[in-house]
Automatic annotation (TrEMBL):
This is ABC transporter substrate-binding protein. Residues 33-296 form the Periplasmic binding protein domain. The keyword Kinase does not apply. It comes from the Bacteria. It comes from Enterococcus hulanensis. Pfam families: Peripla_BP_4 (PF13407). Gene3D superfamilies: 3.40.50.2300.
Amino acid sequence: MKRVSFLIVLLLLLTSCSAGKSKSDTDKKQYVIGFSQISAESSWRERNTESVLDAGKKADYKILYKNANQSQAEQIKDVRSFIASRVDLIILTPIVETGWKHVLEEAVAADIPVVINDRLISEEDSHLYQTFVGPNVPIQGIQTADFLKKKFKNVPAPINIVEIQGSKDASPAISRHAGLLEGIKDDTRFQMIASVHGDFMLSKGREAIKNVAKSHDLRQVDVIYCHNDDMTDGVVSYLEETDIKPGKDIIICSVDGQQSAINLLKAGKINCVIECDPNMGEMLFEVVTAVLEGKDVPKENFTTGRIFSEFSELNKIEERGY
Ligand code: AHR
């Protein structure tokens, strides 16, 4: 009798544990996704990583996360480790545009789909990945040019621009540079007098402008165009140690839209910020799910970005969260 009651209690317990979950829920396979991130070079990147990891968790994927600390060799190793672990899909944020052919061919051979996040790889290797989720970067350079044309309306030539690019060979550095040149090509007043790299990092942005100051008289510079907000923070901190007033004596344009840049914009120390939204996790996992379900997805899925400038209603800008 004792044995029968024990069995009944056990049965009741088992039924109550599975209550609320349908058979299809319990049978559902949990996909494993390998996520290869570049590093934590900027506040933007930190927010992007959080957004991807949070969205993956919310969508019930198991994420294997690797941070390559700014090294392409490390990133290639990380992708190879995902292939060896037979993950279901790989998300790759490529540090630079080129050099991915072999490792991506290995992913194709292993039948593991690859989704590219945030930065692009060379067009010639685009058949090696399924789809891209991220910003439409060339537009950011063109939007900067549009702001400059408005700001310098009726100002005579020359208008001297110094550019602080992101990391060499990284797709946003290439496209932000090309986008600006495209945007100013019909206005010969603008000329780029120096273009250097600052690796998307605050300390290197500061170092970059300090080096430019050794070969150029900054009082002859009208515009500094920084490829991201962390480098802008570095540039402004350097200029504040000189007698040049950032945002007044030199017009400063930036990209990202993180809180530090919005604060500088409100303080009149910079003049324009093109938003590059790092919160792409949700969109990314919608696309990942579609790929895993074998659905057709567009080759490019662009996030959107606004223009914040001294011509905007700055008090309407919400807290940025990064
Ligand atoms: O790839 C996007 C760029 O990388 C962001 O603009 C920058 O902040 C980041 O480090």
